[in-house]
Amino acid sequence: MRLRQRLTPTPTASTTSLLARLEDQEILLKFRDPAARNVAFNQLVRKYQQKVYWHVRKMVIDHDDADDLVQDVFVKVWNNLENFRSDASLYTWIYRIATNECLNFLQSKRRKFFLPLNDVGAELSAKLEADDSLAGDEVELKLQKAILRLPDKQRMVFNLRYYDEMPYEQMAEVTGTSVGALKASYHHAVKKIEQYVNEASH
Amino acid sequence: MKTPFRLDDHPRRQQPLASPPDGYFDKLPLRVMQRVRPAEPEAAPLFGWLAALSAPLRTALASVLLLVAFVGTYWLTDSPARYRTPTGAVATVPAATSERALAAVPHAEVVQYLLTNDERLTLQDFSETPIADRDLTATFLPGTSRAELEAALDEQPSVDVYL
User: Fold this and answer.
1) Higher-scoring residue by pLDDT: A111, B10
2) A48-62 pLDDT, tens per residue?
3) In this structure, are residues A24 and A40 in contact, taking their beta carbons and an 8 Å threshold?
4) What pLDDT score does A110 carry?
5) Which of A5, A192, B10, B122 is the most buried (most CB within 10 A)?
6) What is the CB neighbour count within 10 angstroms for residue A58?
7) Can you give the pTM of this predicted structure?
8) Where are the beta strands (DSSP E) in chain B?
9) What ipTM was assigned to the predicted interfaces of this complex?
10) For B107, what's the count of Cα atoms within 13 Å in the CB-facing half-sphere?
11) B27 to chain A nearest CA, in Å?
């Protein structure tokens, strides 16, 4: 039994990444064939839908808003996939579209309702309090409220690093920011969050 | 003393918010596919071009159509000639075409019609026709002299009202 376990190769992170890239290449090749286009796109949506959904959901909190945005993201992916450069990562490209959609959504929400920054934060905070998943977990609720107090772009950086554990190099591709700036942004975000949670606990 | 909060010490929740409704990720690809599928070309409505015209143009077009309808109605109802078909139905022929239509009917057919029709010509018919057109008899009784006509009329039984 132990011998079999030793002989069976366990997939490392780099192997998984390579397999994911190969699958992306296969999807892109199929997408270029008009007869297989729908099948390829369906495969792409199934592969990335959960990652995109949670990435968006953590930014907009509300499920219905996230649902609309996720669909918009995939519609944009469909419309632009033919122009996608194969040398870039499909994964980071989709994340980039999702990130821009979220930031535009939050920005337009503020413009639409003529609300100052804190009021949109208060609205999202109220949605957090209504979330069943956080009921009874006071520290987690404080943590989520602290994350919401960050500016949108910094919150995005924090989510990508803390929840998705995305390497800084990929984050740089997604956000179009330098690795150094991202590291600094994340470091400051963690400090702010810890400070808010500690203040709220006293 | 309470331990200060440190993010590294806090158990991380991969999905900190409530999960989406059951089956959401099963249906999402289908919903996305419905949005990206090219829309079927809509059949152009019958009068779609009319809606594309500007309001003044539509008003002018309506006026022209009304005028055409009025002129057409007037032309069709201008002194129509009525005649009874061999089956007994009454047909109407516009004045402009009645003469040509009558000319196209063979002479023998006209004579046959006159002989078999229940509504025979009476003296009253002959007494009225000269007033409208004195040369009318020349068209349907060609080659008949005046003396022969007068003799034929004399043979008819007289009615007091004409005396």
Assistant:
1) B10
2) 999 999 999 999 999
3) no
4) 80
5) A192
6) 24
7) 0.61
8) 81-84, 90-93
9) 0.81
10) 4
11) 10
Pick the more confident residue, A153 or A125.
A153
> What gap in Å lies between CA A169 and CA A92, rounded to an integer?
10
Amino acid letter, residue B81:
A
- Per-residue pLDDT at A189: 96
Phi and psi torsions of B82, nearest 5°: -105, 140
Are A27 and A40 spatial neighbours (Cβ–Cβ below 8 Å)?
A: yes
Residue with the larger pLDDT of the pair B81 and A37: A37
Q: Which domains does chain A have, with CATH numbers?
A: 18-114 (1.10.1740.10), 115-202 (1.10.10.10)
Better-scored residue on pLDDT, B56 or A166: A166
| A42: nearest CB among B14, B21, B33 | B33
- For residue A125, give both structure tokens: 């905070």
Q: Which residue has the tokens 């780099």?
A: A14
HSE, side-chain direction, 13 A CA sphere, residue A13: 3
- More confidently predicted of A10 and B60: B60
Interface contact flag, B35 A71, Cβ < 8 Å = yes
- pLDDT score of B50: 73
**3-class state of residue B154 by DSSP:** helix
By Cβ distance, the residue of A42, A45, A193 closest to B7 is A193
pLDDT of residue A24: 85
**Shortest CB distance from A194 goes to which of B7, B18, B35?**
B7
Q: Tokens 């006159």 appear where?
A: B114
Measure the CA–CA gap between B35 and A10, rounded to whole angstroms: 40
Q: What is the mean pLDDT of residues A16-33?
A: 81
Tokens, residue A10: 């366990």
CA dist., res. A75 & res. A162, Å (int): 28
